[in-house]
Amino acid sequence: MNTSGDRLKALLHECGLTSSDFAAQRSVTPQHVNNWLKRGVPLARLDELADLFCVHRRWLRTGEGPKHPNPILRNFPPRPAPANTPSPLSVHRGRVLNVPYHEVRNGLLSPAAGQHLRLPAKALKELGVRPRNAVCLAMPASNMAPLIPLDATLAIDLGMTQVVEGETYALLHNGTLRVNYLSLGQHGTLYLHSHDRHNYAAERYTAAQRQAQRLEIIGWVFHWSHFRQQRPG
């Protein structure tokens, strides 16, 4: 790899991103990205892209020195290993993707300009989630509490809409966002289940009802996160 463009191309390949996907994420034209790959990364973009891929600016520009920053702080003793095995989302080598936030407007998914969630590229790859199919949404109701609280950030795989028994999915129901466990019955009947079964009964929709009520599976919920609303005590 002789140029910064070659190194950028390799980083895109490691993250499973096409140049078109990357251009859309950075709000530039595909021609801009192609120019970076052929002629090298512009100096004005070096800090931005080095931070995005968690690599050293010097390495991206010249190929010299270490590729990734050393995560170990030498002035402090190493932390003990966690008792529980970390989730795939916590195990990565610094490469991250910006997963864009979306909102439901007029019954359709629409991007929320300038907002994104940074997730490890390796974790998405291990889950089989293509970067272009990943979007973020806010949890719209309390039916999945306490597992998924109201307003928690959800990461959705738009490429997985086939129902796997008991998995969590985002749906549009007459233009309204919903999140439920799903199961399938005979003749295309769809069952919606909530985590809070005490306050939310299971719902049943035949194929005809699904069509009439515009009940559409958006995608599989593969990640969620949230902050507590207040500090205890």
Description:
This protein is α+β, with helices and mostly antiparallel strands and 233 residues long. It folds into two domains: 4-62, lambda repressor-like DNA-binding domains (434 Repressor (Amino-terminal Domain)), CATH 1.10.260.40; 96-225, Umud Fragment, subunit A. Helices cover 25% and strands 28% of the residues. The chain contains seven helices and nine strands, in the order αααααββαββββββαβ. The protein has helices at residues 4-14, 19-26, 30-39, 43-53, 57-62, 121-127, 207-212; strands at 96-105, 108-120, 134-138, 153-157, 168-173, 176-184, 190-193, 203-205, 215-225. The chain has a seven-stranded antiparallel sheet with strand order 3-4-9-5-6-7-8. Strands 1-2 form a two-stranded antiparallel sheet. The protein is elongated, with a radius of gyration of 21 Å.
Mean of residue pLDDT values: 83
N/C terminus separation: 56 Å
CATH homology superfamily of the largest domain:
Umud Fragment, subunit A
Low-pLDDT residue intervals, each spanning 5 or more residues: 71-93
In short:
This protein is an alpha+beta fold. Helices cover 25% and strands 28% of the residues. A 7-stranded antiparallel sheet has the order 3-4-9-5-6-7-8. A two-stranded antiparallel ribbon has the order 1-2.
Spell out the key features of this protein.
Umud Fragment, subunit A; alpha+beta; seven-stranded antiparallel β-sheet; 434 Repressor (Amino-terminal Domain); 2 domains; 233 residues; two-stranded antiparallel ribbon
What's the layout of helices and strands?
Layout: H1 4-14, H2 19-26, H3 30-39, H4 43-53, H5 57-62, E1 96-105, E2 108-120, H6 121-127, E3 134-138, E4 153-157, E5 168-173, E6 176-184, E7 190-193, E8 203-205, H7 207-212, E9 215-225
Helix pairs in contact: 1-3, 2-3
